Amino acid sequence: MDYDVIVVGAGLAGLVATVEIADAGKKVLLLDQEPEASLGGQAWWSFGGLFLVNSPEQRRLGIKDSLELAWQDWQGSAGFDRVDDEDYWGRKWAQAYVEFAAGEKREWLRSQGIRFFPVVGWAERGGQLADGHGNSVPRFHIVWGTGPGIVAPFEQRLRAHMVTGMVQYKPRHRVNELLQVGGAIVGVSGDVLAPSTAARGEASSRDAVGEFVYSAQAVVVSSGGIGANHALVRQYWPSRLGTPPAKMLSGVPAHVDGRMLAIAEQAGGRIVNRDRMWHYTEGIENWNPVWERHGIRILPGPSSLWLDARGQRFTAPNFPGFDTLSTLEAIQKTGYNYSWFILTQKIIEKEFALSGSEQNPDLTGKSIRQVLSRALPGAMAPVQAFMDKGKDFVVASTLAELVKGMNAITEEKLLDLAQIERQIQARDREIENKFTKDAQITAIRGARNYVGDKLIRVAKPHRLLDPASGPLIAVRLNIVSRKTLGGLQTDLSGRVLNQAGEVVPGLYAAGEASGFGGGGLHGYRALEGTFLGGCLFTGRVAGRAVAKELQSR
Ligand SMILES: Cc1cc2nc3c(=O)[nH]c(=O)nc-3n(C[C@H](O)[C@H](O)[C@H](O)COP(=O)(O)OP(=O)(O)OC[C@H]3O[C@@H](n4cnc5c(N)ncnc54)[C@H](O)[C@@H]3O)c2cc1C
């Protein structure tokens, strides 16, 4: 055997698995189709939000969280309804993961130098009943340094193992096949791709300049999901979400191509929950794209008015930041692939954040001075850049001008000023009293009882048509593809199972390729910050398990 273990994919899950295996004294070959510039995969681009339960950061902000509450929220969000089959292992992984997030996760990361921004974010607020979807409390912990900050300690460990020879890392190696002897996976073969100068995240060529075959006692597949492969996204799009969007932006680099999943399937692995995906509804086209159709997700506070393509306001729970899947369903059922936010300057200054490490230079660069400047008047610089240069933004001092501008950036010109004005005036009248029947305004006021929201995330309720809060802003929101919730079904050791539910000997999976654990630990919906965490957890579990199995042979 050339190596003890081969890991396919040098994203976060692959990095974690590799260093855990090498720590246990086993020799690893780490392969990736991309050049070294893209080491770390999607995680480098991520906002670095991590789901933690009952953390010191939460407690300092007066948040009362517990394992029981988190598990209640997880189950209400997941809606596991295939527990005897496709959800069997995913549900078990979910339970183990929530325990990890309430237990060892924070200290394990801190021991590697990872620190957290002190204000905990409240993602996916739900908007229905207590035992339904959503986080009952804020749990989105932003890593100080965002995505690069979470990749860094694992990259450091990787490079240390490369120096001692425990790990060989070969970029530009694209796996085409998992090799089998007597039903057991014993290696990989593939193409050596031409050297590439593509910068991080940019598409690299697929020109082959050679071939390779490597053998090992086990292979870990950590090749990510299908988010950049829109043909696959459309193929598995569930009918419950209406017709697949004709137009979509890409929230992930081109390497998230889903190709390795089919290769693992050919080798006997079972893929489950293909119809579960996590795409965002608040996508804007990047004016400065790194990859094709590059979409950026707005992480919205709760105050923008959300209208469908025809200018009709969405009803509860489809408010900004409440229920991604429900909103996606509502949008798709309109027959159009976009929707609108209408908001004010006051709202954009306090409530608009953009997902992605490069969109948050203050947090990514760990600059306290720049982070504090978020509190100063004016939108954050990356948001202002979109207002100035992004094709999805309209800024106007009157509603008439705004609606005219909105109609001008769509082909259909579906919006009627009188109809939009009537809805905004009705909403604005509800601001006059301290109580209201408008569920969104109730939610905004409720959110401001959380100090973190009041400080930096939720604008004081005000009339949208009050010129003192202006100018008015409209944003066209596109669907942006991102996460794959289903994947290779794995047991609690990360071993890939076949159609009969038996272990495929020698084959492990981790990260998004395994549906973040078990072939889908999220079920239908995510509580956010659970993807990076799922990669950390599954990479750690699979890495330790494969090393243990080899030691016992
Ligand atoms: C902009 C952005 C923001 C995000 N923000 C957050 C956040 O705040 N919180 C959160 O929890 N999650 C977030 N995520 C999601 C999270 O980053 C990803 O789900 C996670 O990083 C996936 O990691 P992975 O290791 O499973 O896969 P990937 O990072 O996709 O890595 C897979 C690797 O496998 C390689 N590969 C694939 N096929 C082959 C093959 N056949 N041969 C060789 N190599 C192959 C690819 O080139 C790639 O390098 C975000 C993602 C993005 C893009």
From TrEMBL:
It comes from the Bacteria. InterPro entries: FAD-dep_OxRdtase_2_FAD-bd (IPR003953), FAD/NAD-bd_sf (IPR036188), KsdD_DH (IPR014614), Succ_DH/fumarate_Rdtase_cat_sf (IPR027477). Residues 4-532 form the FAD-dependent oxidoreductase 2 FAD-binding domain. GO terms for molecular function: steroid dehydrogenase activity, acting on the CH-CH group of donors. Keywords: Flavoprotein, Oxidoreductase. This is FAD-binding dehydrogenase. The lineage of its organism: Bacteria, Bacillati, Bacillota, Bacilli, Bacillales. It comes from Paenibacillus roseopurpureus. Signal peptide: none annotated. SUPFAM superfamilies: FAD/NAD(P)-binding domain. PANTHER family: 3-KETOSTEROID-DELTA-1-DEHYDROGENASE (PTHR43260), KSDD-LIKE STEROID DEHYDROGENASE RV0785 (PTHR43260:SF1).
